[in-house]
Design a protein that fits this description.
2% of the residues are buried. The chain is mainly alpha-helical. It starts with 23 loop residues before the first helix and ends in an 8-residue tail after the last helix. It contains 2 helices and no strands. The longest helix has 27 residues. It is elongated and about 65 Å long.
Length: 84
């Protein structure tokens, strides 16, 4: 396992210099993508269908609504101490 975020574009890598610390994951991913002839941009969204993204957003909103309802119900019933 490598430390760091491979999608962090603020990390600047120098050619012919070993990466260290938080830059190691990005360095590995970029070198692998270049070796395979892929671009440096890592865009996960291009691999997802629009329908999948919309359904995932709807599911997330549904979960958030359920959590808000639960919080209100616990507060109204006097069990707000269970929220912390």
């Amino acid at each position: 396992m490598f430390s760091g975020d491979p999608t962090d574009t603020s990390i600047k890598l120098r050619p012919l210099e070993p990466a260290s610390g938080q830059a190691l994951a990005r360095d590995l991913v970029l070198k692998t993508r270049r070796r395979k002839g892929l671009g440096d941009q890592i865009a996960v969204s291009k691999y997802l269908d629009d329908e999948f993204v919309v359904s995932a957003q709807a599911e997330t909103l549904s979960i958030i609504a359920d959590l808000c309802f639960l919080q209100l119900a616990l507060s109204a019933s006097g069990h707000a101490d269970l929220l912390s």
